[in-house]
Specification:
Layout: H1 7-12, E1 21-28, E2 31-38, E3 43-46, H2 54-62, E4 65-67, E5 73-75, H3 77-85, E6 89-92, H4 96-107, E7 116-119, H5 123-133, E8 136-138, H6 141-145, E9 150-153, H7 160-167, E10 176-179, H8 186-193, E11 199-203, E12 213-219, H9 225-236, E13 239-243, H10 249-257, H11 259-276, H12 281-302, H13 306-313, H14 319-329, H15 332-347
Parallel strand pairs: 6-7, 6-9, 7-8, 9-10, 10-11, 12-13
Antiparallel strand pairs: 1-2, 2-3, 4-5, 11-12
Helix pairs in contact: 7-8, 10-15, 11-12
Length: 354
């Protein structure tokens, strides 16, 4: 296939509705290449420099993408859900964030309850959680990970090292470890697991509880494309996911993981302002919350820069510009920037505190 061929034209050569045909876009050595796989023909066409391991990666992705009736490529979500439902999941630390993710996975049928084991510190909480979710709950991390295919590490950063030493003997190179512990690098995890266990680092946020989460992920040294695909499926189930370089993960923690707290302060302030100008509190809160949700949705749906969208709302000599002047005088913009910078610095310190 000649280089430079438009993807749409390439798709046209694949029979419509053929689930065996897939299109995969991989980033390898900082260059992007498209791989078109037709399992019936058993052929692999390559564009760009592709390493030998791509064949196995393409086979995996081939089960996760299909060509729809219009000839477009779409995610085969049923196939991925089916793959994960057959996996054994261990959630170590089913507290606030771990519990949010676990409930979402079970609600969506991503994992079967009978194949899930969770751990918590206290026996009473273990009984309550087991009764609520119908999963096995224990205080023994090593017992929980035995025979697990995927381990979701949700404990506090300060105890990650101890937990890894505890469970390491039960893990193999076939076990995928996904860590949501803030500030803990993949290298730190890999050193304590000894074996070449694939590791994916992720940082979701609490809006995942309602399917509106935002997660940043990065792969460790031993993670392959199929491991990232599993992680993407798990976090896409609770919102949106973006892959970043690991050097930016503390920034992800400060912006999107801590971000809801900043947004709640702004939302609360807007609601209080509504009360100040005479609106009932419930009405003011609804107006503020829906306005913030709507503004965020416009940014996500249109892709327009927030500054352009702001200008579209701001009419000459109108009331909005007067409000903006007050925000600028109060240094809201620079304060938010400084908050994220400070939180980023703090994120890099959590691992080293007791």
């Amino acid at each position: 296939m000649p280089t430079g061929i438009p993807p749409a034209a390439a798709f046209a050569r694949i029979p419509k509705g053929a689930s065996a045909a897939v299109a995969v876009k991989l980033r390898l050595d900082q260059s992007c290449c498209f791989i078109f796989l037709c399992s019936l023909a058993g052929s692999l066409l390559q564009v760009g420099g592709v390493v030998a391991e791509v064949w196995r990666a393409a086979e995996w992705f081939g089960a996760c993408y299909v060509i729809d009736a219009r000839g477009g490529v779409r995610k085969n979500t049923w196939t991925m859900a089916q793959k994960l439902s057959d996996k054994r999941l261990a959630v170590l630390g089913a507290g606030k964030l771990g519990g949010i993710l676990l409930r979402a996975y079970l609600k969506q049928g991503l994992f079967a309850a009978k194949r899930v084991t969770a751990t918590v510190k206290h026996g009473e909480k273990a009984k309550a959680l087991a009764k609520e979710l119908g999963v096995s709950v224990t205080n023994d991390n090593r017992k929980a990970v035995k025979d697990a295919d995927i381990i979701l590490l949700g404990v506090k950063p300060q105890v990650v090292g101890d937990v890894l030493r505890e469970i390491a003997p039960e893990l193999s190179e076939k076990t995928l470890v996904i860590s949501v512990a803030a500030s803990v690098p993949t290298g730190y995890l890999e050193e304590r697991l000894v074996k070449k266990v694939p590791v994916v680092r992720a940082m979701p946020n609490t809006p995942s509880a309602v399917g509106c989460g935002m997660t940043g992920i990065c792969a460790g040294a031993h993670a392959k494309p199929e491991h990232l695909e599993i992680a993407l499926a798990m976090f896409n189930a609770v919102g949106r996911t973006v892959a970043v370089d690991e050097k930016n993960m503390d920034g992800v923690t400060a912006l999107s993981a801590s971000g809801p707290a900043y947004a709640y302060i702004i939302l609360e302030s807007l609601a209080e302002a509504g009360v100040k100008v005479g609106l009932p509190r419930d009405v003011a809160t609804l107006l503020a919350a829906q306005t913030m949700k709507g503004a965020a949705s416009v940014v996500l749906e249109t892709g327009d820069h927030p500054a352009l969208l702001k200008d579209a709302v701001t009419t000459p000599a109108g009331c909005t510009i007067d409000g903006i002047m007050e925000l600028e005088e109060g240094k809201l913009r620079v304060t938010l920037i400084k908050a994220v910078v400070k939180a980023t610095e703090r994120a890099g310190q959590l691992l080293f505190e007791k």
